[in-house]
Design a protein that fits this description.
The protein is of the alpha/beta class. It contains 20 helices and 14 strands. Strands 3-2-1-4-5-6-7 form a 7-stranded parallel β-sheet, sandwiched between helices. The protein has a 7-stranded parallel β-sheet with strand order 10-11-9-8-12-13-14. It is globular, with a radius of gyration of 23 Å. The two termini are about 45 Å apart.
């Protein structure tokens, strides 16, 4: 049977996905995170079939991981409120998102997304029967998009961001470029994304901004009080180092161990495991306690100078206690969320690798986020922020002002969705 070039490429892509799945099932025997990735998906179709009722009208929202979930959360919450007669099915690609949020979301049903084969896509949509599909930021899965288009399901990309170096804009990216054509509408973060999509002859584009700004704006409005951190901080200045990797900790520890300033420290490692926590504690020369030990009343919070956060889900609240924040990843795997601390109107320090992150680039340019190259520069910046009160307040105010000007993406997207559903 003759296959057109388009169908041949799709068949090769699907074959590669199946090969990848086979390889992952082998790796899963030796790698805990991959094991979650593989074994979690084995139950997806059963979970969907048992949970979904024939009467359900479903909006499907798909995110890659925890960061994209937080990005999409304001929209999920608004959908739940505005379309209360619909159910939200939320899917994750990564275990680091699913395992943290599977029992803690406003969605009606949370599962892994089966890998992107034509068979999986067809079966998934036959069970879910979505009235609307929403993909967040980078998620472009060709077989799912084709299947959604075949079923005439409106499909949106929200908080999308496109860059010239992506495959869509390269000579070899024709298959992925074609996949973009199955989206009903693109809601993009910036003018650059719109311009790039227009070079591919797309016009179904709205510059809505980034729903993450709506999310972090919500964080400030909630109750962020943590009595144990209240007691720990007292009347001291506090530096919170969030989502740190070992490379970040090498920058932070010399200052933490030697400073005589009246300041306390909270360190929240990105990866929480017993061995790393023990190594971190051993490298600190001042009195240090884990947050779990405070919860167990093992120690008096006031007597410690450093808290290591060994519990998940606390960081956004802990940032509310910071006078200065350090956000990790800028020396390692990729910068983490700078908006979460910035929304509290405080100075933020990061490492040198931030150019892939629009908000970090903007705020470094505006001097609200301070980029450092090494431990010595970190020491200089912290000392200046502690000594020069006006400088610290001005730096933090830049961050808060930037975020306030960027809120509103969720409203724009909801206005469009309302025209689709009603």
């Amino acid at each position: 049977m003759y296959l057109s070039k388009k169908h041949l490429v799709r068949s090769i892509y699907s074959l590669l996905v199946k090969i990848a799945w086979y390889c992952l099932t082998i790796i899963a025997k030796f790698h805990p995170k991959i094991k979650l990735f593989v074994y979690g998906r084995r139950e997806t179709f059963t979970t969907l079939e048992q949970a979904i009722q024939p009467s359900w009208k479903i909006i499907w929202v798909h995110v890659a991981s925890l960061g994209e979930y937080e990005q999409g959360l304001p929209l999920v919450e608004r959908l739940k409120k505005r379309f209360s007669d619909h159910k939200i099915v939320l899917t994750f690609f990564s275990p680091s998102g699913y395992e943290v949020k599977k029992d803690k979301t406003p969605a009606d049903l949370v599962t892994y997304l089966p890998l992107d084969t034509s068979g999986n896509a067809r079966r998934f949509l036959e069970i879910v029967r979505p009235k609307l599909a929403i993909f967040v930021k980078y998620e472009v899965w060709p077989n799912y998009l084709i299947a959604l288009s075949t079923r005439q399901v409106p499909t949106l990309l929200v908080s999308g961001i496109f860059k010239e170096k992506q495959a869509y804009f390269q000579w070899y990216g024709r298959f992925l470029r074609r996949s973009l054509g199955y989206f009903t509408h693109f809601f993009v973060q910036d003018e650059t994304s719109e311009t790039l999509l227009k070079t591919l002859d797309f016009e179904n584009i709205t510059i809505s901004g980034d729903t993450r700004f709506d999310r972090v704006a919500q964080i400030v409005q909630r109750d962020n009080q943590l009595p144990l951190i209240d007691s720990f901080k007292g009347d001291h200045h506090c530096l919170v180092a969030g989502s740190t990797w070992p490379e970040d900790e090498k920058i932070l520890l010399p200052f933490i161990n030697t400073t005589s300033a009246k300041i306390k420290f909270i360190i929240a490692p990105h990866t929480i495991n017993k061995r790393h926590i023990q190594q971190l504690k051993a490298a600190l020369t001042k009195k240090v306690v884990c947050y779990s030990e405070l919860q167990n009343h093992a120690q008096n919070p006031k007597e410690n100078q450093i808290v290591i956060v060994d519990s998940v889900g606390l960081l956004t609240k802990i940032y509310s206690y910071a006078d200065i924040a350090y956000v990790g990843g800028g020396f390692a795997t990729g910068l983490h969320n700078t908006l979460e601390p910035a929304v509290f109107g405080i100075p933020v320090i990061i490492g040198p690798e931030y150019s892939d992150f629009v908000e970090a680039t903007d705020l470094v340019r505006q001097n609200g986020v301070l980029s450092i190259q090494n431990s010595k520069e970190f020491e200089i910046q912290v000392a200046k922020l502690l000594q020069e009160t006006f400088f610290a307040k001005e730096t933090g105010a830049i961050n808060l002002s930037y975020i306030r000007k960027k809120v509103g993406a969720t409203n724009t997207i909801m206005e469009y969705i309302t025209t689709l559903i009603e």
